[in-house]
Amino acid sequence: MLVEVIATSVEDARRAEQGGADRLELISGILEGGLTPSWGLIEAVVKAVSIPVYVMVRPHSQSFCYTADELRVMKEDVRVIRGLGAAGVVFGMLTPEKQLDRHGLELLLTEADGLAVTFHRAFDEAADQREAARILLQYPQVRTILTSGGKRTAIEGASCIAELVRMTAQTPLGILAGSGLSEANAPELIRQTGVKAVHFGTAAREDGQALRYVDAERVAAIKRACQLAEK
């Protein structure tokens, strides 16, 4: 059972690792759903922890549709992130019609050589999550889909998550369930869906507050609960 925790600082990263997190999603702008962090922060976090660091590549929170200029900036960010030693990148893009933007995806993948790629929750705004998953299966570099099953929370989207887990079961593409998960409700989601990876944000933070530091004890409790659910 893989537990991924959002980090926004070096302190977050250290605490998440101390609590037993298996992987970090490094972002800025947590209240905006995650934006690209500074290159200085990426370098510092990669040096501070031994667990994999996946870095958000998202230039703004207006939408998941990007102009040609924005895609060029994102591609440059991927290049720099790769050079700073991160294990992976997290991005996603859609067309105005809510289809996967294959041109934008392919542009960034050309620069992501050697990095694991997570397609983030832009996936949940796609017109059809099942069709979107079938498209992503055509890109071996995309190793993970972060999803709430097309709903506001992963609990609400559990049936879709279960279907996506079945669709990808014999493939290199994994499903990472996220949004609204906590120590209390993640175990039931794991049992319902068979998902092997879960993603936590505010639930892993002091007092469950987005703008507080990650709480190592909360991370440890989440990890124990998820491991028990898998058995």
UniProtKB/TrEMBL annotation:
It comes from the Bacteria. It is found in: Cytoplasm. GO terms for cellular component: cytoplasm. InterPro entries: CutC-like (IPR005627), CutC-like_dom_sf (IPR036822). Its main location: cytoplasm. The keyword Ribosomal protein does not apply. GO terms for molecular function: copper ion binding. Keywords: Cytoplasm. Belongs to the CutC family. HAMAP family: CutC (MF_00795). This is PF03932 family protein CutC. The gene is cutC.
